[in-house]
């Protein structure tokens, strides 16, 4: 799945994944994480999600990454925001107050770009990618966010043979394979979600579950112990 795929989706207005409302699970579970005010929250593959604005309303600072200039430009225009646009290494930085969107390729981000990040919100990033790219995505994410940063992750589970993604099915064993070396993985809640997603039912699904995960950073000793068990 190439950048051109996503550029074409935005160009053609094929935005089936975009919600015209704030994610209800974000409203419910974000406050339970106990983050202090002014935490910098990283939102990968953010599109033009309204969740960015909600996070800033919770007194968090927000930094997203999005490859489509259409998405970034539309986000600021639709909310009456006038961003300052500057060069940011291989990326562009669009900033308005406490909200920043970096326009460019997620894989061009480096650890020095995200040194202040204290939390990650992944609502539609991991599930947007096929399996081979998910492994690359997770490894890169772990390499660029500080080890202290927790993550709120949302995934779907369904019979992948009945529908080709995106969104893709990401099951619990894959979550463990991707993240257990870095995080303690907690299943906060799992919901039957097929009735909330009629477009996916129209694509052939009869069942689909959604899981909300809290990825809590391991201490250095826990991480070392996990590596020894793996080896």
Q: What would CATH call the homologous superfamily?
A: Vaccinia Virus protein VP39
Q: Which topology does CATH recognise?
A: Rossmann fold
Distance between the termini: 32 Å
Mind telling me which CATH architecture this is?
3-Layer(aba) Sandwich
Give me the number of helical elements.
Answer: 8
- Name of the CATH class: Alpha Beta
What is the N-to-C order of secondary-structure elements (H for helix, E for strand)?
HHEHEHEEEEHEHEHEH
Cα Rg: 17 Å
Number of domains: 1
Largest beta sheet: strand ordering: 3-4-5-2-1-6-7-9-8
Keywords:
alpha/beta; 231 residues; Rossmann fold; nine-stranded mixed β-sheet; 8 helices; single chain
Task: Tell me what the structure shows.
30% of the residues lie in helices and 26% in strands. It has helices at 3-11, 24-29, 51-57, 69-78, 131-144, 172-179, 198-202, 220-230, and strands at 40-43, 61-66, 84-88, 91-96, 99-103, 117-122, 150-157, 183-192, 209-217. The longest helix is centred in the middle third of the chain and has 14 residues, at 131-144. It has a single domain, classed as Vaccinia Virus protein VP39 (Rossmann fold), CATH 3.40.50.150. It is globular, with a radius of gyration of 17 Å. Strands 3-4-5-2-1-6-7-9-8 form a 9-stranded mixed β-sheet, sandwiched between helices. It has 231 residues and is an alpha/beta fold. It contains 8 helices and 9 strands.
How would you sum up this structure in a few lines?
The chain is of the alpha/beta class.
Topology:
Elements: H1 3-11, H2 24-29, E1 40-43, H3 51-57, E2 61-66, H4 69-78, E3 84-88, E4 91-96, E5 99-103, E6 117-122, H5 131-144, E7 150-157, H6 172-179, E8 183-192, H7 198-202, E9 209-217, H8 220-230
Parallel strand pairs: 1-2, 1-6, 2-5, 6-7
Antiparallel strand pairs: 3-4, 4-5, 7-9, 8-9
